[in-house]
Specification:
Blueprint lengths: L5 H14 L6 H7 L6 H9 L7 H10 L4 H20 L5 H53 L1 E2 L9 H6 L5 H20 L14 H13 L35 H5 L8 H15 L5 H56 L5 E2 L4 H22 L11 H25 L1
Parallel strand pairs: 1-2
Helix pairs in contact: 1-5, 2-3, 6-11, 6-12, 6-13, 8-9, 8-13, 11-12, 12-13, 12-14, 13-14
Length: 410
């Protein structure tokens, strides 16, 4: 993982941006680095040390600054060591030591507040677009699919694929999710389900009814599909945030991502006692040392979670983009398919070859949507470096595959 701090990388990027002739604005850097709408805010947060760019963003920023990613990374690592030496130099006088520690205390509080704000901003953006994609694409597709009788049982992932795949590839996981959704639809169409999604379109409970089958159904081997998730990033339980799991009617990552502001608990707890000393007008040496140790513990907690926080924000940003695509293009394609269908009652044969293929494609999109919305983002914040690397890789594969697949269909 990274050997540089967010603060150091931010300083280096700002210096290079301003050193260009003519100097480049944050807006210009964001545009050249493909940050899209509102990208200047992201550049500002990077330069302030609140977030660090991921690998692909870092490469784009380096190119815009006429550097290689290796050069930018090396300078950030050198600056990290320089800043560490500076932080290690303490003033001689007690009064100056207290002033420095209070300054660091205030800085931590500000960083905690900013992290909470950033998480809420990205979380709310994802929640909004996810709910629209769920209601306008996922549940409306389910409603349409339920109206088609006689749909064949979908092909399950082949047993030899599952057994030979060590960590199950993303394609097989999403295929398994699509199978589970399809089987739930077939059961509902046959009248075997305990209520249909059509009765509660727009609700998280209806969403959970049909997605639970994908998460907790079984493959041809009898293995629970939920265990086909490979590494811990999307582990067998698919532990989700907020409102319970999808299986119990919750809304997964979308339903509870704002609870991630709980990541500030560790540093906040370390600072509770420190706050008492900060407000005192006079501190003796022992009290100052105690305050300093608590501030250092809070700084360490923030530093330790920085890479997980950066990964979290990157995941939410990318997942939001995928959901937005489904919201705009997926819903339009679904409406065109609806208009092409014959009036009810409908059976599988009446769809024709083209309509049957479209049914299968929309089923795949539904599986991709589910795979993205059920990413276990909370684990990113507490993972050790090695585990975080593996989790980040697995999540990246899921996001890339889902985004590419969805765009190839709609």
């Amino acid at each position: 993982m990274n050997d540089f701090s967010a603060e150091a990388m931010g300083l280096v990027i700002r210096e290079h941006r301003q050193a260009l002739s003519p100097s480049m604005t944050q807006e210009e850097l964001a545009k050249q680095a493909d940050y899209g709408k509102g990208g200047a805010v992201s550049i500002s947060r990077i330069e302030s040390g609140l977030i660090s760019p991921g690998e692909h963003r870092l490469a784009a920023i380096a190119l815009a600054l006429r550097l290689t990613p290796g050069q930018l990374t090396q300078e950030a690592e050198d600056r990290t060591r320089s800043l560490a030496r500076q932080h290690g130099q303490r003033p001689v006088k007690l009064r100056d030591q207290v002033a420095e520690t209070k300054r660091r205390h205030a800085g931590i509080n500000e960083k905690v507040a900013q992290r909470s704000k950033i998480t809420q901003e990205f979380g709310e953006a994802f929640n909004h677009v996810h709910d629209v994609a769920r209601d306008e694409f996922f549940l409306k597709f389910v409603e349409l699919a339920e109206s088609v009788s006689g749909a064949p049982e979908p092909e399950r992932p082949r047993e030899e694929e599952i057994e030979s795949a060590g960590e199950i590839p993303t394609a097989i996981r999403i295929e398994a999710m699509s199978v589970g959704i399809a089987n739930a639809i077939r059961s509902a169409a046959a009248g075997a389900a305990a209520g249909t999604a059509a009765a509660a379109v727009g609700g998280a409970a209806a969403y959970g009814t049909f997605t639970a089958a994908a998460l907790f159904g079984t493959a041809s081997t009898g293995t629970a599909i939920s265990t086909l998730s490979g590494v811990a990033a999307t582990n067998a339980t698919l532990a989700l945030l907020g409102g319970g799991t999808l299986a119990t009617g919750g809304a997964g990552m979308a339903g509870g991502v704002l609870l991630l502001t709980g990541m500030v608990i560790a540093p906040a707890a370390a600072l509770m006692a420190a706050g008492f000393y900060v407000v005192r007008k006079r501190l003796n040496k022992a009290e100052e040392e105690r305050l300093r140790s608590e501030v250092e513990a809070a700084e360490a907690a923030l530093d330790q979670s920085q890479q997980g926080f950066d990964a979290l924000i990157d995941v939410l940003h990318r997942a939001t983009g995928t959901m937005e695509y489904v919201e705009v293009h997926g819903t339009h394609a679904l409406e065109k398919w609806r208009a092409s269908l014959r009036p009810e009652p409908r059976d599988w044969e009446s769809l024709g070859r083209e309509g049957q293929e479209r049914y299968k494609e929309f089923l795949t999109v539904a599986g991709c949507l589910l795979a993205v919305s059920s990413i276990n983002v909370s684990a990113l914040l507490t993972a050790e470096p090695d585990a975080l690397r593996e989790m980040d890789k697995a999540i990246d594969e899921t996001l890339r595959y889902a985004d590419k697949t969805i765009k190839s269909i709609v």
